[in-house]
């Protein structure tokens, strides 16, 4: 197949512009993303140079291998940059919306990407050596296909987790907010600002007021993921047919299912760059190493949002204010099992947390910190009613 000269020169220009754009956007401090997309841009430019070179002589192996290897492995870097963005979105909206802790998404899929890249590179190298030695490229092709199959499989899992995340933040939150169990299109009319209280408060300033780069970032990322997946499925089918199959010998399949798909994906992530969405020049968005799914004494201080929501459900204002007063000062206190509401004097050993109690007749008394007369004190406590003072912030 003789590559179309005008088309491939045009793609060199397009990818040159996209590569330059990604280099400039390094100023938004999304270093992992920028590195991945710069690598993609370099590989795409080299791949189309190889195709342009092959136009003059289709029997040359060097430009053919440059084209095949570079354009085949380029999406590995693209997805490596995209995988990390789901972890960031989970930090912004709240880790409770994911099936895994945010950092696990990055570890699992980036590791899968690296393994896929290594397998594809090994396949390309094996095929290249076979061509140089005038031997069969069958083994190299099989290795190449295995690497692509792993990439497609990992993308399928990622897409499931990605759409699960979108359902959680856009659909399930509205169902809970409206207190309904069945979806209806009218739920989508509920503005994001109205349900923002259900998200993590730490990064509220990124979500409110609504900014176009962040508002449509998930849409841009969805478009990129779907187009890259389409391209990877095409490549898998192409190489599965072999080097003389119908797909690889007809350039229109490549133009539509590879060149156009990769261009759309990169344009989406260039326009909706994570540096714009996450305010990269002024904000840092670290991914927490671990996220605990159950509250414990150790993470009580870190779960301010959840604690406040639970405390707000109390019937008394004192309970809410008390949760704020105590929770930030001593994160080893369990508000559900501490001695705050305990009227048994034998368990009130920490007098620094003594709470005045009120007798039924209205007279105040000590909480029993004086244990000199245990028997008398216990009988007195049985006639008292514990009450929390209405602390004010």
Could you characterize the architecture of this molecule?
The protein has 393 residues and is an all-alpha fold. It has 13 helices and 3 strands; from the N terminus they run H-H-H-H-H-H-H-H-H-H-H-H-E-E-H-E. A 3-stranded antiparallel β-sheet has the order 2-1-3, with no helix packed on it. Strand 1 (357-359) and strand 2 (364-365) form a beta hairpin. The protein has 2 domains: 5-277, Rhopdopsin 7-helix transmembrane proteins; 304-386, no CATH class. Belongs to the lipid-translocating exporter (LTE) (TC 9.A.26.1) family. One of its GO terms (cellular component) is fungal-type vacuole. Residues 323-393 are annotated as: Disordered.
Q: List low-confidence stretches.
A: 292-375, 378-393
Proportion of beta-strand residues: under 5%
Query: How are the strands ordered across the major sheet?
Result: 2-1-3
Q: How are helices and strands ordered from N to C? A: HHHHHHHHHHHHEEHE
Q: Based on the structure given, which CATH architecture of the largest domain is correct?
A: Up-down Bundle
Annotation field: number of helices: 13
Oligomeric status of the shown chains? single chain
Ends: how far apart?
Answer: 76 Å
Using the alpha-carbon principal axes, give the shape.
Answer: elongated
Main β-sheet description: 3 strands, antiparallel
Please report the first level of CATH classification, the CATH class of the largest domain. Mainly Alpha
- Give Rg in angstroms: 30 Å
Tell me the number of structural domains. 2
Average pLDDT, rounded to a whole number, is 80
CATH topology of the largest domain: Rhopdopsin 7-helix transmembrane proteins
Helix content percent band: 55-70%
Beta strands, count:
3
């Amino acid at each position: 197949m003789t590559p179309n000269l005008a088309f491939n020169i045009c793609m060199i220009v397009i990818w040159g512009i996209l590569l330059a754009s990604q280099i400039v956007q390094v100023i938004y401090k999304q270093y992992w993303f920028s590195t991945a997309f710069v690598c993609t841009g370099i590989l795409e430019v080299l791949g189309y140079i190889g195709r342009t070179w092959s136009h003059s002589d289709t029997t040359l192996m060097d430009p053919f291998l440059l084209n095949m290897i570079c354009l085949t492995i380029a999406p590995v870097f693209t997805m490596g940059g995209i995988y990390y963005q789901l972890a960031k979105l989970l930090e912004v909206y709240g880790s409770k919306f994911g099936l895994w802790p945010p950092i696990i998404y990055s570890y699992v899929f980036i590791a899968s990407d690296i393994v896929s890249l290594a397998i594809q590179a090994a396949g390309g190298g094996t095929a290249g050596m076979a061509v140089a030695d005038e031997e069969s490229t069958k083994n190299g092709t099989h290795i190449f296909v295995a690497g692509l199959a792993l990439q497609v499989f990992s993308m399928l899992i990622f897409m499931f987790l990605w759409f699960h995340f979108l359902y959680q933040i856009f659909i399930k939150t509205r169902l809970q907010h409206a207190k309904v169990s069945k979806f209806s299109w009218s739920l989508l009319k509920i503005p994001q600002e109205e349900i923002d209280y259900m998200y993590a408060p730490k990064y509220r300033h990124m979500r409110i007021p609504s900014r176009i780069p962040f508002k449509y970032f998930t849409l841009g990322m969805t478009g990129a993921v779907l187009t890259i997946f389409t391209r990877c499925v095409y490549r898998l089918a192409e190489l599965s047919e072999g080097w003389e199959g119908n797909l690889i010998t007809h350039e229109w399949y490549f133009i539509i299912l590879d060149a156009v798909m990769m261009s759309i994906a990169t344009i989406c992530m260039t326009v909706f760059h994570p540096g714009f969405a996450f305010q990269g020049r002024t904000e840092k968005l670290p991914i927490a190493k671990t996220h605990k799914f159950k509250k414990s004494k150790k993470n009580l201080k870190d779960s301010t949002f959840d604690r406040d929501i639970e405390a707000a459900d109390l019937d008394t204002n004192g309970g809410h204010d008390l949760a704020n007063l105590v929770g930030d000062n001593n994160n080893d206190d369990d508000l559900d099992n501490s001695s705050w509401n305990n009227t048994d004097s034998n368990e009130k050993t920490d007098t620094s947390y003594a709470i005045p109690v009120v007798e039924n007749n209205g007279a105040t008394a000590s909480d029993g910190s004086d244990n000199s007369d245990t028997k008398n004190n216990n009988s007195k406590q049985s006639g008292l009613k514990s009450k929390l003072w209405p602390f004010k912030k």
